[in-house]
Amino acid sequence: MTQQARQFARRPSLGVAVIGTGAMGADHVRRVDRLISGAHVAAVADLDPERARRLADTVDGCVAYADADEALAAPGVDAVLLASPGPAHEEQLLAALARDLPVLCEKPLTPDAESALRVLEAEQKLGRRRIQVGFMRRFDSEFRRLKRLLEGGTLGRPLLMHCRHRNVRVHDYFTTSMLINDSVVHEMDCTRWLLEQEIAAVTVVRPRPSSLAPEGLEDPQVVLFETAGGAVVTVEMFATSGFGYQVQAEAVCERGTARIGEGHDLLVNSRAGWGGEIPQDFIARFADAYDLEVQEWVDAARADRTTGPTAWDGYAAAAVCAAGVEAQRTGRRTEVELVERPDLYA
Amino acid sequence: MTQQARQFARRPSLGVAVIGTGAMGADHVRRVDRLISGAHVAAVADLDPERARRLADTVDGCVAYADADEALAAPGVDAVLLASPGPAHEEQLLAALARDLPVLCEKPLTPDAESALRVLEAEQKLGRRRIQVGFMRRFDSEFRRLKRLLEGGTLGRPLLMHCRHRNVRVHDYFTTSMLINDSVVHEMDCTRWLLEQEIAAVTVVRPRPSSLAPEGLEDPQVVLFETAGGAVVTVEMFATSGFGYQVQAEAVCERGTARIGEGHDLLVNSRAGWGGEIPQDFIARFADAYDLEVQEWVDAARADRTTGPTAWDGYAAAAVCAAGVEAQRTGRRTEVELVERPDLYA
Amino acid sequence: MTQQARQFARRPSLGVAVIGTGAMGADHVRRVDRLISGAHVAAVADLDPERARRLADTVDGCVAYADADEALAAPGVDAVLLASPGPAHEEQLLAALARDLPVLCEKPLTPDAESALRVLEAEQKLGRRRIQVGFMRRFDSEFRRLKRLLEGGTLGRPLLMHCRHRNVRVHDYFTTSMLINDSVVHEMDCTRWLLEQEIAAVTVVRPRPSSLAPEGLEDPQVVLFETAGGAVVTVEMFATSGFGYQVQAEAVCERGTARIGEGHDLLVNSRAGWGGEIPQDFIARFADAYDLEVQEWVDAARADRTTGPTAWDGYAAAAVCAAGVEAQRTGRRTEVELVERPDLYA
Amino acid sequence: MTQQARQFARRPSLGVAVIGTGAMGADHVRRVDRLISGAHVAAVADLDPERARRLADTVDGCVAYADADEALAAPGVDAVLLASPGPAHEEQLLAALARDLPVLCEKPLTPDAESALRVLEAEQKLGRRRIQVGFMRRFDSEFRRLKRLLEGGTLGRPLLMHCRHRNVRVHDYFTTSMLINDSVVHEMDCTRWLLEQEIAAVTVVRPRPSSLAPEGLEDPQVVLFETAGGAVVTVEMFATSGFGYQVQAEAVCERGTARIGEGHDLLVNSRAGWGGEIPQDFIARFADAYDLEVQEWVDAARADRTTGPTAWDGYAAAAVCAAGVEAQRTGRRTEVELVERPDLYA
């Protein structure tokens, strides 16, 4: 038995069925196929079978289905990623639970609290958690740093949080209630996760809408949460800001405040002044670069191509280093000597 | 034949041999094993066979070798990642070229220009590029943004570049010439890559060393490059800064300057003022969060665990949304109604 | 008649009576005496005659009075600066109006709207405006820049404003209502001034107070204004932040947002990205430095002292310039030649 | 004898003669006349008598002279501010020393080291320092904060300094040597002042000039200083940057670095991270606003005008406060009641 065979026998790659092949679903297919370690796209399903088929064709070993149920039952399917419209979630979640499959479900879990409760009941009947909801901010490095800081406790209890949530523009079908259900829902989850408290009450204050918002859309809005523990959260929701996508948060605690999402590292105000942390080593600073370096090298190797800095670059660096050490030794300007560049590295 | 079998028949996972199992090699093993899509660690090798074995034991299907040559010849090895000490590189690179294997070689290519030339010759004899050198900054998102900006040409021709390269401290064995060979070598590669010009001359200016630098280490230093195209680059190399790891660069061009590495997004000075770009959509802003969300979900599913936001979180969000939409409609503070939290989600 | 006599005959220095000699009054006395051009402190008054006398003794030609009325009637008094406690303002303002004297009145005008109306009536009876209220933020360079930007109209109509107002701590006598009357009153004035609209309604949302706030002080609070034109303003009022004094504001407009008070220049988010303006000449950048340079030189000359860079500094600069021009010409490192430093410049 | 008379008898206003009435001289005349406390412009002089006369006409009690000597000898002249061209300085400085007058001399002291030495000798013969050279950066709040930080010693000994000096553009008559004599001379003085060491050697490195620099101007340049104490200073001098006026400096010390001139408060890198100080009280934050408030009030009062927030603004604030305290007490949205705005405050 070869080493590789033994590996897959012991820890097989996870076969994922992606349900829904719109923009979000297609992006997840690309992600699982190209970036995620230990998983592959085994099946896709969509009410539009043609769209599903076209997507499946881009992935080795992926089969298209017109029906979510069929995809869940397909050979090699170990887990489900739901990227279908919200109203389809309840039925698909129940089907996945019936098969005891792990599910990653794009938000919302379901479109309302009643249907969500039915899903909760099914999962409790199963007796173990199988569903993860796609509140992706919990995986963002900035939000995680803020979470860790709050958990660490140096700033004391959080008293207030200020959030800003701005989009450039919205689709034609966007409505005022979607400002809450589609957009502010992220701040609701962040509040619950960061403060580890349920939200007890909501208030909405509406300014005169922007003249640039579509007719009928009351944008922007100020939304206030009061949590069970007495914290107050202010949310600026501005879906037609016109200038950019910004998600910002500042936690105001008893001993200081911490801000994220402003184009710079986590910024803390405290007795020590304003500022943040400096990375202490190159691995922290360049971790993502190392990951990408190796991923691009693997991708190129599998396609029998090369990419990135060449042996010529390695040689040139060595020649410049030699001049640098000489310059260091003599205190003098030192010229670099290079052989002529071979055609292979043109 | 199943779909999955067909997939691996068509596009097999890349079997990587990692040579050298010190800190860097071990980190690459973890990376290939856990994060990289489409590759697995098939073999490791180290002069210290015990260290290699211990590392191999952490990876399914990975075999340890005491000899790099053996590892290169092992079954299932498709590519080589060299993380061994620089003096070992020449022989290992030549061995990999002899087997026509793609190589990712941690810098330096080799310790001096003469040996690097011999590697170049072997690769030319092979007739195609097989070697990638590990200058990882070329894969860093900030450096890539700077590169794209310079290529775009809006700022005009680069005239100067200012670099800062600071470490917290150095190992006992660090020497003054290593300031060039181990550290400034990165600025040499960045200069060549960003400006697309060879470096023609180097000058080193040494201040009176820091009293906190180890005896005999002349740190910090100012290094100047002059490029073939007439640009001048200043480098502050400060290996014993005591406070952090900072890699910063500012390109000064005919129509503006651009800076990276300062804890905030790429900052441009131009006729339009100082500032930078705002992301235009949530995918740009949260791309990494989506990747991590799916990776952590896959990792948990393969280990038969769950992680991340639960169905309860999905239900609570739905309930708060309902209150929010009611508050929006009535203009009044609205209380949130939640069922009692089931034990499963405690 | 000498030139100088003629000057003062034509445009006399303004004789100011400062009423109230607590911390604020004493600071204003110092300001008028040392920094303000065209004015001098002619009189001070305080219920504590000893404190007034001690302050008067620090200023040439200043006389102390125990009674505000006497000070207003004193010879050489042309204008009044009220730094007395708020409850004393009504009577003192009416006295100043009776004498037709210009008044700068530290806020509040009076402690409540009824008494303020009586002052308004007296001023209307006088028939011209004589009273300026001390809302000093209108004179702050950052607030002025924000005001100009909003007036310029490039960002469109202001929809929202977010304010933060943080103090390190409060005095023992500070009460919850003083959070409004003493602190948020500044945001009230800024809102009215920046948006050029009256405030139509106020809402206060109180989180569970900080455990570090004194017993009985409900701090922090979130205060909401709705303006006559439909803008909404959120104010974080946090008087016991423990870390610093911060006054921040962000105006959210139809085409972008603008922020001040964050330790950097006015920051605009707009279609062009995030960022701000770069000064275009040295006068803009160093205007304050020129003012201070001349003021310190004048102060030194009047005291028959010298200060600032000496002739030796001028000589040394000339010698280094000579070396610099030589280095520029030859391309070589050039040593600077200086004579020995004379004792006069030791 | 009145109080005011006694004041001027004891501490008279300083009569300043401004020599040179170009842009710089005219700006100083305005400054002394309008902003500086305790001084007035008694005389101006210029080789162009008509320009001098026009400027004198804008200032009460100021007399114009065609000859600097005459201006120095004029009645009421107590001090001299030299804003004439550099080549005229030597003679004018010697004349001022002959009359024992305090001098503020715009840089350069004189155009070369030899003439500067003659001035030094005359001042030594006089036996006391009378000359201050106009290196205005020493009076800039950012440079002063950096100076204080370096003197405080927490960052240890300065090892390096990095300076950037950028202009938008230059006049037609600007030459390559003026890059040193007119521009980098400021960095020379800053280096000497901040590091308290003489500059021992200068090196200039010239990149290929910007294609946007005027024909014959070799801009930008990199200038290096080595100080007597072994510090190294790098200066980017870029007079035709096209985008703005920027003067930036970073001192790199044994225990951290500190940066100024980047559009935000002094930024320190140290073991504590990156960041800066937060002001601790409103006086620190709004000191300049208070100064300007009082100056504008005095200017208005002397011109029999009013400016700034009116009594109506004071009344409106009181009315909004009343609503705020009510909202705070009841927890409810509270409407503000205002009387109709009187015509006087329209």
Distance between the termini of chain A: 44 Å
Strand percentage of chain A lies at 15-25%
Q: State the CATH topology of the largest domain in chain A.
A: Dihydrodipicolinate Reductase, domain 2
What share of the residues of chain A lie within helices?
Answer: 25-40%
What is the strand arrangement across the widest sheet of chain A? 8-9-10-7-11-12-13-14
The SS-based structural class of chain A is alpha/beta
Largest sheet of chain A: 8 strands, mixed
Number of strands of chain A: 15
Q: Could you tell me the mean pLDDT of chain A?
A: 94
| CATH level-4 homologous superfamily of the largest domain in chain A | Dihydrodipicolinate Reductase, domain 2
Q: Could you state the oligomeric state of the chains shown? A: homotetramer
Which ranges of chain A are low-confidence, i.e. pLDDT below 50, for 5 or more consecutive residues? 1-10
Query: For the CA atoms, what is the radius of gyration of chain A?
Result: 26 Å
List SSEs of chain A in N-to-C order.
HEHEHEHEHEHEHEHEEEEEEEHHE
- How large is the count of helical segments of chain A? 10
What number of structural domains do the residues of chain A give? 4
